[in-house]
Amino acid sequence: MAMRVRKVRLCILSAVLSLTASAPATSQDVACVVTDPTGTPLNVRTEPNGRIVTSLTNGSKVRRVEERRYAGKGWALVSSDTGELGWVFSAYLDCVSVGGDRWKSAPMHPRPPAN
After folding, report:
1. What is the pTM of this model?
2. The CA-based dihedral angle spanning residues 39, 40, 45, 47, taken in that order and rounded to the nearest 10 degrees
3. Do 64 and 78 touch, CB atoms closer than 8 A?
4. Which domains are assigned to the chain?
5. How far apart are CA 89 and CA 14, in angstroms?
6. Torsion over CA of 29, 40, 52 and 105, rounded to 10 degrees?
C-alpha cells in the first residue's frame, strides 16, 4: 500500500513539474510604453475587449503582468505605477524585459522557428 501511495505521489509531482516547465512565461517583469500609431489614447478595459475604464496616452509607461489571446488578438494586462490594473490591446505596446530583450507589439505566442 505504501509503495502504491508513493508511486501516485511521484506521478502527480511529475505531472505538475511537466506543466510548469511547458507553461509560457507570463510572470516576467516587463516594462512597456504605449505606442499607439493612431495617436489617440489607448483604451484600458476591465477584461480583453471589455468595458473601457480609462485610457493611456502615447508615451505612458506601464508594466505587463499577463498576456492573453481573445478573438485572435493579443491583449496585455498592465499595471500602472499606482498598482491599478487593466487590459489593453498589446499591439500598441513596446515592451522590454528586465533582461533587455525587446518586442515590438509584444507577440502573445511566438511561433517556433521553421527548420
Report:
1. 0.61
2. -50
3. yes
4. 25-104 (2.30.30.40)
5. 36
6. -30
Q: Could you give phi then psi for residue 4, rounded to 5 degrees?
A: -65, -45
Q: What is the spatial distance between Cα 2 and Cα 57, in angstroms, rounded to a whole number?
A: 61
CA distance 12 to 14: 5
- DSSP H or E run through 11: helix 2-22
Element housing 8 (H / E)? helix 2-22
Query: Mean pLDDT by 10-residue block, N- to C-terminus, for the chain (115 residues)?
Result: 48 36 50 92 95 94 94 94 92 80 41 53
For 20, the grid coordinates are 510548469
Check: CB of residue 103 under 8 Å from CB of residue 95: yes
Q: Alpha-carbon distance 47 to 51, whole Å?
A: 7
12 torsion bin: left (phi>0), alpha (psi -120 to 50), beta (else): alpha
